[in-house]
TrEMBL record:
Protein origin, superkingdom: Bacteria
GO molecular function terms attached to this record: glucosamine-6-phosphate deaminase activity; identical protein binding
BP-aspect Gene Ontology terms: carbohydrate metabolic process; glucosamine catabolic process; N-acetylglucosamine catabolic process; N-acetylneuraminate catabolic process
Coiled coil: none
Protein species of origin: Savagea serpentis
Pfam entry (one): Glucosamine_iso
Keywords: Carbohydrate metabolism, Hydrolase
Protein's name in the database: Glucosamine-6-phosphate deaminase
GO cellular component terms attached to this protein's record: cytoplasm
Amino acid sequence: MTKLNVVRVNNESEAAQYVHEYVKNKLQNETLQTIGLATGSTMIPIYKCWVESTLDFSEVTAFNLDEYVGLSKDNPNSYAYFMNEHLFQHKPFKQTFIPDGLAEDPEEECERYEQLLQEHPLDLQLLGVGENGHIAFNEPETPIDSITHVAKLTDSTLSVNGQYFDNAEKMPDIAFTMGIESILRAKSIILIAFGEKKRAAIEKLLEGKVDVHWTITYLLTHPDVTVITDLQA
Ligand code: GLP
């Protein structure tokens, strides 16, 4: 087990600056051909900073972590819509991939996505974290060797993420997600977590023990993880 690189910041704009410098260096050294991207409010300042910068992603292929099953890319609650809104319509990428929420055969869609990931090894994966410690939609007790799959969302996730839906009943209770193994294959990982609601998850991670109930702790088995947080443990 290797030591996590923990970066304490005072606010979201410092986090965005850190990620900007990190990505800029990788682009300059030509070590960023593929990037894994995340959704969620934590990522908004990061993408805003990229959009306002001169960073050039036109030779970079992007993969997103997850998508709700049943939502089209035109649905404002879909992650495809989020990515277009906050990043892709402003910054050109070489190619962007996200699971197809409307895929007719979800199992086949998982296989297709996992295959694409294996063909394009990720140089860097960005992650947020759920209040229950999930990364992507790998809910508690997801095995470490999981690959892209359809996840059943827990009550905790349904209630936290349900607030973004105008009617919580419209929120799908299943989602496509990259698995833990798919995420851990990335060469480097940056996880960003802000605020008290993420304290339990960050404390579990910093305790340094892998715990199947907190899938964030699987990151402890990866050799190159940077955690950017405003939390003082
Ligand atoms: C969702 C996503 C996760 C993300 C989490 C945190 O559940 N599936 O990938 O990390 O939201 O979102 P936020 O940044 O809004 O707290």
